[in-house]
Write a structure and sequence with these properties.
Layout lengths: L26 E5 L5 H11 L6 H9 L3 E7 L5 E10 L2 E9 L8 H15 L4 E7 L3 H9 L3 E11 L5 E10 L4 H8 L1
Parallel strand pairs: 4-5
Antiparallel strand pairs: 1-2, 2-3, 3-4, 5-7, 6-7
Bound molecules: coenzyme A.
Protein backbone atom coordinates (compact mmCIF):
# COMPACT_ATOMS: atom_id res chain seq x y z
CA UNK A 1 0.00 0.00 0.00
CA UNK A 2 1.11 3.58 -0.34
CA UNK A 3 2.38 5.53 2.61
CA UNK A 4 -1.21 6.64 3.01
CA UNK A 5 -2.30 3.08 3.43
CA UNK A 6 -1.27 2.01 6.86
CA UNK A 7 -3.30 -0.95 8.05
CA UNK A 8 -2.25 -2.56 11.28
CA UNK A 9 -5.02 -4.55 12.81
CA UNK A 10 -3.74 -7.97 13.72
CA UNK A 11 -6.63 -9.75 15.31
CA UNK A 12 -7.62 -13.34 15.60
CA UNK A 13 -10.15 -14.61 13.12
CA UNK A 14 -13.64 -14.89 14.52
CA UNK A 15 -14.27 -18.53 13.82
CA UNK A 16 -17.89 -18.31 15.05
CA UNK A 17 -18.79 -16.42 11.91
CA UNK A 18 -19.63 -18.33 8.78
CA UNK A 19 -16.96 -18.49 6.10
CA UNK A 20 -17.81 -17.06 2.71
CA UNK A 21 -17.62 -20.47 1.09
CA UNK A 22 -20.08 -22.01 3.55
CA UNK A 23 -22.51 -19.09 3.58
CA UNK A 24 -22.83 -17.56 0.12
CA UNK A 25 -24.02 -14.02 0.27
CA UNK A 26 -25.22 -11.55 -2.29
CA UNK A 27 -22.60 -8.85 -2.65
CA UNK A 28 -22.49 -5.89 -4.93
CA UNK A 29 -19.18 -4.41 -6.08
CA UNK A 30 -19.46 -1.08 -7.84
CA UNK A 31 -17.47 2.06 -8.52
CA UNK A 32 -16.84 4.31 -5.54
CA UNK A 33 -18.17 7.86 -5.82
CA UNK A 34 -17.93 10.91 -3.59
CA UNK A 35 -21.41 10.04 -2.30
CA UNK A 36 -19.93 6.89 -0.71
CA UNK A 37 -17.31 8.72 1.30
CA UNK A 38 -19.28 9.31 4.52
CA UNK A 39 -19.81 5.55 4.80
CA UNK A 40 -16.26 4.75 3.67
CA UNK A 41 -14.77 7.11 6.25
CA UNK A 42 -16.75 5.49 9.10
CA UNK A 43 -14.96 2.22 8.27
CA UNK A 44 -11.59 3.78 7.46
CA UNK A 45 -11.21 5.52 10.81
CA UNK A 46 -11.87 2.37 12.80
CA UNK A 47 -9.81 0.11 10.52
CA UNK A 48 -6.50 1.96 10.74
CA UNK A 49 -4.41 3.70 13.37
CA UNK A 50 -3.35 6.14 10.63
CA UNK A 51 -6.39 6.27 8.34
CA UNK A 52 -6.68 7.94 4.98
CA UNK A 53 -8.40 11.31 5.12
CA UNK A 54 -11.53 12.11 3.16
CA UNK A 55 -9.29 14.28 1.00
CA UNK A 56 -7.12 11.28 0.11
CA UNK A 57 -10.19 9.49 -1.24
CA UNK A 58 -11.41 12.60 -3.07
CA UNK A 59 -7.99 13.03 -4.68
CA UNK A 60 -7.96 9.37 -5.71
CA UNK A 61 -11.39 9.65 -7.31
CA UNK A 62 -10.43 12.88 -9.04
CA UNK A 63 -7.29 11.20 -10.37
CA UNK A 64 -9.41 8.44 -11.88
CA UNK A 65 -7.95 5.63 -9.79
CA UNK A 66 -9.79 2.33 -9.76
CA UNK A 67 -11.98 2.61 -6.66
CA UNK A 68 -14.72 0.18 -5.73
CA UNK A 69 -17.12 -0.29 -2.83
CA UNK A 70 -18.50 -3.66 -1.78
CA UNK A 71 -21.99 -3.72 -0.29
CA UNK A 72 -24.28 -6.37 1.06
CA UNK A 73 -26.81 -6.50 -1.76
CA UNK A 74 -29.66 -7.16 0.66
CA UNK A 75 -29.01 -4.88 3.64
CA UNK A 76 -27.08 -2.27 1.66
CA UNK A 77 -24.39 -2.14 4.35
CA UNK A 78 -20.85 -1.31 3.33
CA UNK A 79 -18.63 -4.38 3.59
CA UNK A 80 -15.38 -3.00 2.22
CA UNK A 81 -13.61 -1.07 -0.51
CA UNK A 82 -10.41 -0.74 -2.45
CA UNK A 83 -8.46 1.92 -4.33
CA UNK A 84 -5.80 1.08 -6.90
CA UNK A 85 -3.67 3.15 -9.22
CA UNK A 86 -2.94 1.96 -12.74
CA UNK A 87 0.55 2.51 -14.09
CA UNK A 88 2.41 1.36 -17.18
CA UNK A 89 2.02 -2.43 -17.22
CA UNK A 90 1.19 -2.49 -13.53
CA UNK A 91 -1.46 -1.86 -10.90
CA UNK A 92 -0.63 -0.51 -7.46
CA UNK A 93 -3.09 -1.29 -4.70
CA UNK A 94 -3.25 1.72 -2.38
CA UNK A 95 -6.00 0.74 0.01
CA UNK A 96 -8.05 -2.40 0.61
CA UNK A 97 -10.23 -2.55 3.66
CA UNK A 98 -12.90 -4.85 5.05
CA UNK A 99 -15.18 -3.52 7.80
CA UNK A 100 -14.02 -5.05 11.10
CA UNK A 101 -17.34 -6.82 11.72
CA UNK A 102 -17.05 -8.46 8.30
CA UNK A 103 -13.53 -9.84 8.50
CA UNK A 104 -12.80 -13.49 7.92
CA UNK A 105 -15.66 -14.10 5.49
CA UNK A 106 -13.74 -14.03 2.23
CA UNK A 107 -14.54 -10.42 1.34
CA UNK A 108 -10.90 -9.46 0.79
CA UNK A 109 -10.45 -12.46 -1.48
CA UNK A 110 -13.57 -11.39 -3.40
CA UNK A 111 -12.19 -7.87 -3.89
CA UNK A 112 -8.71 -9.14 -4.79
CA UNK A 113 -10.23 -11.43 -7.42
CA UNK A 114 -12.14 -8.47 -8.90
CA UNK A 115 -9.02 -6.31 -8.83
CA UNK A 116 -6.98 -9.00 -10.57
CA UNK A 117 -9.58 -9.22 -13.37
CA UNK A 118 -9.61 -5.43 -13.65
CA UNK A 119 -5.80 -5.31 -13.69
CA UNK A 120 -5.62 -7.92 -16.44
CA UNK A 121 -8.21 -6.05 -18.50
CA UNK A 122 -6.13 -2.90 -18.21
CA UNK A 123 -3.00 -4.69 -19.36
CA UNK A 124 -1.21 -4.86 -16.02
CA UNK A 125 1.43 -7.55 -15.67
CA UNK A 126 2.01 -7.05 -11.97
CA UNK A 127 -0.03 -6.01 -8.96
CA UNK A 128 1.93 -4.22 -6.23
CA UNK A 129 1.16 -3.31 -2.68
CA UNK A 130 2.91 -2.19 0.47
CA UNK A 131 1.91 -3.33 3.91
CA UNK A 132 3.13 -2.46 7.37
CA UNK A 133 5.73 -4.87 8.65
CA UNK A 134 3.67 -5.34 11.84
CA UNK A 135 0.39 -6.04 9.99
CA UNK A 136 0.63 -9.81 10.35
CA UNK A 137 -2.98 -10.43 9.40
CA UNK A 138 -2.77 -8.57 6.10
CA UNK A 139 0.66 -10.04 5.30
CA UNK A 140 -0.64 -13.55 5.95
CA UNK A 141 -3.68 -12.90 3.76
CA UNK A 142 -1.51 -11.42 0.98
CA UNK A 143 0.81 -14.43 1.00
CA UNK A 144 -2.28 -16.62 0.96
CA UNK A 145 -3.45 -14.80 -2.18
CA UNK A 146 -0.15 -15.62 -3.89
CA UNK A 147 1.77 -12.38 -3.37
CA UNK A 148 5.53 -12.60 -3.02
CA UNK A 149 7.58 -10.37 -0.78
CA UNK A 150 9.96 -8.45 -3.02
CA UNK A 151 11.51 -5.92 -0.68
CA UNK A 152 11.07 -3.41 2.11
CA UNK A 153 10.84 0.36 2.26
CA UNK A 154 12.55 1.57 5.39
CA UNK A 155 10.61 3.96 7.61
CA UNK A 156 7.80 4.20 5.07
CA UNK A 157 4.86 4.58 7.43
CA UNK A 158 4.25 6.91 10.35
CA UNK A 159 4.00 5.08 13.67
CA UNK A 160 3.15 5.97 17.26
CA UNK A 161 5.28 8.37 19.27
CA UNK A 162 6.72 9.98 16.16
CA UNK A 163 8.43 6.79 15.07
CA UNK A 164 8.41 5.24 11.59
CA UNK A 165 7.65 1.71 10.47
CA UNK A 166 9.02 -0.28 7.51
CA UNK A 167 6.76 -1.30 4.63
CA UNK A 168 6.92 -4.75 3.12
CA UNK A 169 6.61 -4.54 -0.66
CA UNK A 170 4.67 -7.39 -2.24
CA UNK A 171 3.83 -8.24 -5.80
CA UNK A 172 1.68 -10.64 -7.73
CA UNK A 173 2.03 -11.64 -11.39
CA UNK A 174 -1.11 -11.01 -13.39
CA UNK A 175 -2.01 -13.45 -16.13
CA UNK A 176 -3.29 -11.85 -19.34
CA UNK A 177 -7.03 -12.01 -19.96
CA UNK A 178 -8.15 -15.27 -21.54
CA UNK A 179 -8.76 -13.72 -25.00
CA UNK A 180 -5.28 -12.23 -25.06
CA UNK A 181 -3.82 -15.58 -24.03
CA UNK A 182 -5.66 -17.22 -26.93
CA UNK A 183 -4.39 -14.58 -29.37
CA UNK A 184 -0.85 -15.24 -28.23
CA UNK A 185 -1.27 -18.91 -29.08
CA UNK A 186 -2.45 -18.24 -32.62
C1 LIG B 1 -6.54 -7.73 5.71
C2 LIG B 1 -8.05 -7.71 5.40
C3 LIG B 1 -8.30 -6.90 4.14
C4 LIG B 1 -8.48 -9.16 5.19
O1 LIG B 1 -9.87 -9.13 4.89
P1 LIG B 1 -10.81 -10.40 5.14
O2 LIG B 1 -12.10 -10.17 4.41
O3 LIG B 1 -10.88 -10.68 6.59
O4 LIG B 1 -9.97 -11.54 4.42
P2 LIG B 1 -10.56 -12.89 3.84
O5 LIG B 1 -11.64 -13.39 4.74
O6 LIG B 1 -10.88 -12.70 2.40
O7 LIG B 1 -9.31 -13.83 4.02
C5 LIG B 1 -8.30 -13.75 3.10
C6 LIG B 1 -7.47 -15.01 3.08
O8 LIG B 1 -6.40 -14.83 3.99
C7 LIG B 1 -6.44 -15.83 4.99
N1 LIG B 1 -6.22 -15.18 6.27
C8 LIG B 1 -6.90 -14.16 6.80
N2 LIG B 1 -6.38 -13.85 7.99
C9 LIG B 1 -5.35 -14.69 8.20
C10 LIG B 1 -4.42 -14.88 9.25
N3 LIG B 1 -4.43 -14.12 10.36
N4 LIG B 1 -3.50 -15.85 9.11
C11 LIG B 1 -3.46 -16.63 8.01
N5 LIG B 1 -4.33 -16.50 6.99
C12 LIG B 1 -5.25 -15.54 7.09
C13 LIG B 1 -7.81 -16.41 4.96
O9 LIG B 1 -7.74 -17.78 5.32
C14 LIG B 1 -8.25 -16.22 3.55
O10 LIG B 1 -7.87 -17.29 2.73
P3 LIG B 1 -9.00 -18.26 2.11
O11 LIG B 1 -9.82 -17.41 1.19
O12 LIG B 1 -8.23 -19.33 1.43
O13 LIG B 1 -9.79 -18.73 3.30
C15 LIG B 1 -8.85 -7.14 6.58
O14 LIG B 1 -8.48 -7.81 7.75
C16 LIG B 1 -8.67 -5.65 6.78
O15 LIG B 1 -9.37 -4.85 6.18
N6 LIG B 1 -7.70 -5.29 7.66
C17 LIG B 1 -7.46 -3.88 7.95
C18 LIG B 1 -6.93 -3.19 6.75
C19 LIG B 1 -5.73 -3.89 6.17
O16 LIG B 1 -4.83 -4.32 6.88
N7 LIG B 1 -5.70 -3.97 4.82
C20 LIG B 1 -4.55 -4.53 4.10
C21 LIG B 1 -4.78 -5.77 3.31
S1 LIG B 1 -3.40 -6.16 2.22
Amino acid sequence: MSALWSGNRDRDRDDDRPNDRTAPRQRLLREMTVADLDEVMTVEVIAYPFPWTRGNFIDSLAAGYAARVLHDAVSGELIGYFVAMAGVDEMHLLNITVAPAEEGRGHARFMFDALIVLSAQQGAHDLWLEVRESNARARAADLHFGFTQVGTRKGYYPASFGRREHAVVMSLKIAPPAAEANDALE
